[in-house]
Structures are given as C-alpha cells and as structure tokens.
Amino acid sequence: MAGKKAEQALVDRWRDILALHARTQCELDRALHGHGLCASDFEVLDQLSQAVGADRGCSLRVQEISERIHLSQSALSRLIARLERDGLVERAMCAEDRRGVRVALTSKGRALHGQVLPVQRAVLTRMLAG
Fold first, then answer.
1. Which residues pair with 89 in a beta bridge?
2. Cβ contacts of residue 23 below 8 Å, gap of 6+?
3. C-beta contacts of 26-33 below 8 A and 24+ residues apart
4. Which position has the higher pLDDT, 81 or 52?
C-alpha cells in the first residue's frame, strides 16, 4: 500500500510540473505577443544573446540551439526562418564545418531582446517564485 501511495505522489508531482509549465508557457506567450514573439521565439533570442565566446562570436550552431530549447529540428528550422524573415537573426555557414549553420542575433534582434527581457523575467518571477 505504501508503494502505491508513493507512486501516486510521484505521478501527482509530475502532473503538477506539467501544469505549471503549461500555465507559464501560456502566460509567456500572452505577454510576448504584443512584441510579435512567442515564448519559443524569445528563448532562441535569449540563448543567442548569451552566446559570447572567442570560438563562436555571438552565434550558436542550430544543433546547439536545438539541444538547449527542446524543439524538434523541423520546428526549430521554421522558427529560425521566421526570425530571419523578421530581421531578428541571421544564418551563416560554419567556418569550422561547412555542413553546419550558425545563427546570430542582428542588431534589431538584440534590441528587441533587450526590450522584452524584463517582460519575460517578470512573468517567470510571477509564475515560478515561491
């Protein structure tokens, strides 16, 4: 009986995590919509804004982005194409591997990221803090 209760507690905790994620994602989408972004768009911009290093400039390989934001390769490709059409990111071939593609923020993308960063962080604070 104790095993069943422990198992149910685990399942309940998992479902609470899923529900919190869904509510937070919806709140992020709602808050960012007025800026022309959804939560996944912002996450790509945010990851790129933190990609600084001598070996990568201010860009990430598409594969690196995929590993960090948990989207399928096809969904991420569509998202990056949309951000590129909007002038927020630019793609270039990897110098170190001609098969790879690097993505970097444009000045417009960096400016928009800076503008919406406080909005996104406020939603996270409201939804996840204590």
1. 105
2. 127
3. 27/123, 27/126, 27/127, 28/120, 28/123, 28/124, 31/119, 31/120, 31/122, 31/123, 32/116, 32/119, 32/120
4. 81
Residue 56 clears pLDDT 60, i.e. is over it: no
Name the band, by pLDDT with cuts 50, 70 and 90, for residue 96: low
Tokens of 73: 């390769």
6: Cα within 13 Å, side-chain hemisphere: 3
Distance between CA 38 and CA 60 in Å, rounded?
20
CB under 8 Å to 90, separation ≥6 — which residues?
84, 103, 104, 106
CB neighbours of 115 closer than 8 A, spacing ≥ 6? 35
The encoded tokens of residue 122 equal: 């406020």
Average pLDDT over residues 13-26: 96
For residue 124, give every residue at least 6 positions away whose Cβ sits within 8 Å of its Cβ, in sequence order, or none. Answer: 24, 28
Residue found under tokens 């001598």: 54
pTM: 0.86
